Amino acid sequence: SQTIHQWPATLVQPVGSPLSLECTVEGTSNPNLYWYRQAAGRGLQLLFYSVGIGQISSEVPQNLSASRPQDRQFILSSKKLLLSDSGFYLCAWTPTGGGNSYNEQFFGPGTRLTVL
Amino acid sequence: GNSVTQMEGPVTLSEEAFLTINCTYTATGYPSLFWYVQYPGEGLQLLLKATKADDKGSNKGFEATYRKETTSFHLEKGSVQVSDSAVYFCALRRILGNQFYFGTGTSLTVIP
User: Fold this and answer.
1) I need a labelling partner for B5 at 20 to 30 A (CA). Which of A27, A33, A45, B73 fits?
2) Closest Cα partner for A105 from A97, A116, A95, A115?
3) pLDDT at A7 over 70
């Protein structure tokens, strides 16, 4: 079976510090991968998605970046955090291949980021 | 474009009450439709889905029917429990697309 991991679970960082959040998926190959942000009491904002190694689509211009160095690894980064970067960050994946248009997304447990 | 509009919350119900959370969508083509549930401090879990018109998704007593004529996918449950307290998200995936479009979420609190 497939599983998705995110770490760290919780992070408190000062303004201006760097960020690296990691997401890995097990039990599948060539998944589509996604990063979302959820501000307190708000809906989901798609930040990035990737359909393959080194292929990143950015949905919202901001001071975050994403990379996919391996097939099942997706990293969210920032060089200098802002207060507005605080939120709950969710990684998700979907299968690819035949019939994939009907497949749901599977979400990780999330990372709670607080920027002080 | 593609979008999902769902009922504003928060919703507060007594245990065993009937639940409806409205969801309507705008999409090109024929999307797949989903309901997700998020418990406090956790990621989203798929609750149910429907991939074509008139399909009914169901799970854990929740149901939703894909209504193409009204572009709706309303979530219903006949008798809610305290354990159903969570945030519910309606979402669509466009056919042949990689992106998902989520509603803003509806917070449900069930009181004993």
Assistant:
1) A33
2) A95
3) yes
Residue A94 CA, distance from chain mean position:
13
Q: For B82, list phi and psi in degrees, rounded to 5.
A: -55, -35
Chains A, B: CB contacts within 8 A come to: 56
3-state class (DSSP) for residue A14: coil
* Of A43, A49, A102, Cβ closest to residue B32: A102
- In this predicted structure, what is the pLDDT of residue A61? 66
Tokens of B34: 């989903």
Residue type, position A108, single letter: G
pLDDT in tens, A15-42: 999 999 999 999 999 999 999 999 877 7
3-state helix, strand, coil in chain B (%, to 5): 5, 55, 45
Inform me whether the pLDDT recorded for A71 exceeds 70. Answer: yes
Segment A48-72 shows an average pLDDT of: 91
* Cα A75 from Cα A61, distance rounded (Å): 17
What's the CA gap between A5 and B22, in Å, rounded?
Answer: 32
B95 shares contact with chain A (CB less than 8 Å): yes
**pLDDT score of A100:** 60
Q: Closest Cα partner for B51 from B88, B5, B94?
A: B94
pLDDT band at A89 (very low <50, low <70, confident <90, very high): very high
Please give, rounded to a whole number of angstroms, the shortest distance from the CA of A103 to a CA of chain B. Answer: 8
